[in-house]
Amino acid sequence: MSEQEAVIEIYFGDLTPEKQQEILDAWGDNGNYDVYPIALLPRAIEDN
Length: 48
Prior knowledge:
Elements: E1 2-10, H1 17-27, E2 39-47
Antiparallel strand pairs: 1-2
C-alpha cells in the first residue's frame, strides 16, 4: 500500500463569527482571509 498526501484547507468563512472577530482584532481586516486558506491540515490517504 502506498500513501499519498491530501490537504484540508480551512478558510476564514469556515470559522465561527466570534473566531473571525478575534482574528480581525489581532491582525486587521486586509489579510485576504476569504481568498487564501488560513490553515492547511495535511493528512495521509492510504491507496488500496
